[in-house]
User: Fold these one by one.
Assistant:
Number 1:
Amino acid sequence: MTEVSVAKDSVAATDELVVLKSVNKHFGALHVLQDIDLTITRGEVVVVIGPSGSGKSTLCRTINRLETIDAGEILIDGKSLPQEGKELARLRADVGMVFQSFNLFAHKTVLENVMLGQIKVRRTDKQKAEEKARALLDRVGVGTQADKYPAQLSGGQQQRVAIARALAMDPKVILFDEPTSALDPEMINEVLEVMQQLARDGMTMVVVTHEMGFARSAANRVVFMADGRIVEEATPEQFFSAPRSDRAKDFLSKIL
Ligand code: ADP
Ligand code: MG
């Protein structure tokens, strides 16, 4: 059964979806990312936590080249991200991003927000893009809002549109940078529930969040950052019950 073993091998070879090798980045004198080694496998949900200013957002932004790096390497599904050009746009589209501040296009309707990238980057025809956008808006529970503008929606609804927009590109991984931090408390759960469902569906996710309930229930792994370094990595059970580093113990004592 040569065919079967070949297929297995090819799956194993691409199992590492996001690989950061000795990634270093400075902002002037600030060494914001220091020797970051991180491998995220297909289907894994990694929650990144750590104090404000520890480099979590910068880490996310380097993964899809919203920020350049000074040294090291980042591989997405086995491919190194090029510096620029069409190849970068295509590879970047494999990495979805959901921001704290939603970042929807204010002058486009909800439906147009979810169609745009499909048409511009994925070259999907308009009718297919609209069908997919409507299906995704239904999936995140905002199908009836399709013709409104972002400002007419609640924060929780806008963030669910942002998730639909990310999904519309068929990303291999989605990065969430504090997706619920800007939301009123009563809207946090409706966004976390959509994210929980994505995790159950097998989406590969990197989630920067202070929502420890989400980390406990959805994460395969917790990565704790401080001062630009990964200080500790563990399962949520291990991390929350018995953090090893003093930095993590101190951090948890403040937020739990
Ligand atoms: P976190 O998301 O963990 O709060 P950030 O990645 O946003 O941390 O920031 C890490 C450090 O880098 C902070 O000290 C921040 O002030 C600094 N920083 C972030 N972005 C820039 C930038 N574009 N220019 C200069 N310094 C920056
Ligand atoms: Mg941040």
Number 2:
Amino acid sequence: MFKKDFPYFQNSKTVYLDNGATTQKPKSVIDSQVEYYETYCANTHRSNFGHANKATQEFEKTRVLLKEFINASKNEEIIFTKGVTESLNFIASSFAKDFKTVIISSLEHHSNITPWHMQGRSLGNGLEVVSCNDNLDFDLEHFEELLKANPNAFVSITHVSNAFGKIHDIKTIAKLAHEYGAIIMIDGAQSLAHFKVDVQDLDVDFFAISGHKTFAPTGVGAIYVKEKYLKDVKAYQTGGATIQEVDYNHSTLLDSPYKFEAGTQNIAGVIGFGKALEYLNYVKYENIESIEKNVFKFLDEELAKLPGIVFYNDTKDCIGSRSFNFEGIVHDDIGILIDKMNVAVRVGHHCAQPIMKKLGIRGTIRVSVAFYNDYVDVDKLIEALKKALSMLKD
Ligand code: PMP
């Protein structure tokens, strides 16, 4: 129903089911890039002529839109970054650097693991991992034990697992974390494309956002920082547009968000991000949720009929993707074969090697859906999987 809004689907026959990696962009987002570069290309927050002012206004409009979109309380709480990876690295290397203990979940993407390793942390040595059961459910009891044993920890947890679609109950996790004096950051890379996020309702302290996984251009994202922590977050890079005054001995920084947005920003990307949010406001989450529910119902029924299929978790508390293997078949081979049939899914470890190792596998076949996918896409996927399976079994 919404494919008509996405030029990619007019230009390509590909059945696109790799939305967990990146989403397609609606025409309004693409047009905004051309419009900026062709009609008012100028830098923001510096010069004071017409196009520079327009660029600044459009850029700042996205901040207000994003603040409203996730129900932050102040514009200053929204800091633009390149994406979730930069958001997590920023907070890890500034605010969270000196915390004695960092607690993560078993289902983290590498971008919420490697920044902690770069600080010399390892399991039991400044880094703790909350275990999960055989269904990949977050172990709340273990989490509480870790919080008790490590008071005032920094908790950094993914909202939705990109590898298995598992949703973490962030409201409960954040409440528990706060009860033990911990501060909590959420990797929201896989949330906003599928459901409403309200940072005040979740009561999280930091929330990392990816533009390109939310129908916006690549190279743009944000970090929400709860107002009460803004003064304690140190800028991890400084330079142009971050300062109040500089002499050869000293510099004073501006207030948030500007002190955190060093150098020329991805201006077109941020403007495009605003258009993506406007588009999502037009589509509405209630429609997204009902479309995805129906598509997943059909997908689950059809996948279950395929011989030898192996899942690693049930579909309860799962959103955005299904991850599986076929007994005796290498997942990469399926990926190569169905690509020849114009079906795009991701095969591999999905940047989540630790959980793959825990499961004793190298990776999975991941089908990740967005609201523009439909029953026809599922039919084509299933047909391609059947053909690939029969070729590989011969
Ligand atoms: N965390 C998760 C859960 C992800 O799925 C991804 C992207 N695959 C990232 C972090 C990195 O996000 P970005 O591409 O915005 O840096």
Number 3:
Amino acid sequence: AEPAARTGFLAFPESFVFGVATSAYQIEGAAAEGRGPSIWDTFSTAGHAKDGATGEVACDHYHLFKEDIRLMSSLKVKAYRFSISWSRLLPNGDAAEPPSEEGLRFYSELLDALLQAGIEPWVTLYHWDLPEALHAKGGWLSKEMIVKAFGDYARICFHHFGDRVKYWITLNEPWCSAVLGYNTGDHAPGYTEETDTACYVAGHHLLLAHAEAAQIYREEFAQQGGEVGISLNADWRQADSEREEDLEAARRAMEFSLGWFAEPIYLGDYPKCMRESCGDRLPSFSASEKKKLFQSSDFFGLNSYSGNMAKAPPRPFEGTGYWEDIGVEWWHTDHQWARTDMDWPVVPWSLREILLYVQDRYKPMGGIIVTENGCACEPDISAELDERPGALLPRPWDGVRRATSSDFEDPERVRFFRAHLSAVHAAIERKAQVKGYFAWSFLDNFEWAEGYGKRFGIVRVDFQTQERTIKSSGHFLARVFEANGLEAPAKEEQYPGRTF
Ligand code: GBH
């Protein structure tokens, strides 16, 4: 067949940052080597992740980081986003004790090796692995304790690594910490809705901890000349119809997810609709806390993977609790959409829409960085997944060649990245100030509650041998990174639904 006609080359701005992302607990392993336990050790060793999986070994990146950086170089990445394990630096969570020499050495060597390879580090301070010792003292529910502890930990990181790190991310996805950790219980510490308030309390303290770290950086480390931001997750919610109640439902869905954490930072307080629904169950900021939070992020880190429709329920939900408070009919999905192995709908135009929404609503100084975007999809495990009862098919890669063990072809991921990078490009053309894009993830890794079965990597990891193999999506992204752009998707490669 004739090769499909391309609609042109999508060039990104010259200074655009292209990178890959990971997090400590998901890749490092070496859980007992000088590191204290975190809530994710406790949660996973108690059997809460699929198949009893834990991060004890993961990708053994702790020992293999030099090899991993060589791989990054071959993938032409310009920037690498990773996280520091709090309990590797402070095994007991106690900043009054000197930080672990072993932990300091590991991150120091990692940073040196990255810089030597010409790769810019973007460092997340908290990607969900709270030291167990701090959880025992109340964790994210204990305001005074946690805000101070996070500030002290951040100060240690700025002090030791700030000569080499110019981009800091305080928190990864506080929504996940609050809702999955303190409402659904899918993530550590695994609280299920014992109260209809806990996730708001945790969220409140996460925000205050972020503000504390940002303030410490700006007041004590200004001479380092770096930036400090936050990464928030959200998936676009599109109104299911033009009816006013559905438009309103979509707005509420956005405000209860992204707005919950973005509005105190960019607009001065929680979204009005949250206060109206939650009343006093949503904590309030004092005047000085509001001031500390306002504009406390030098850039807007956005993690986005998917999108969905929102509509008003036929009658108001009964009871209180996070989901009831939103009062939006959830997961009303257009069944034409493809799904990834996580079952998340593939909706590339959602990424364009959410970027334009963030630009328009928050006008973030320093612009927007897509700090995560990617998909779980592996032809070689999809045969088994296809047999799930009720799996929503068709999948976009049905009929594509299945991978063999020596050949990691992942055309569905190539297609995903091509479509989503086109969406980012479309948002930039419409004046969204998007400054960077990090693919999730550099390596297949410990996918939290899903264990090792769901693979997000552009590099295949054999968890028996720790062998790494670049997938075709890795080769594809390497070309994008090098060319600073990509060929627009051909027509037949586009997904159903709106185009650009
Ligand atoms: C990220 O969280 C994490 O930062 C990262 O550690 C993790 O490995 C990665 O994603 C992959 O899971 O069906 O439209 O409602 C992602 C947070 C929240 C994104 C729920 C997808 C549901 C999609 N996720 N959301 S939808």
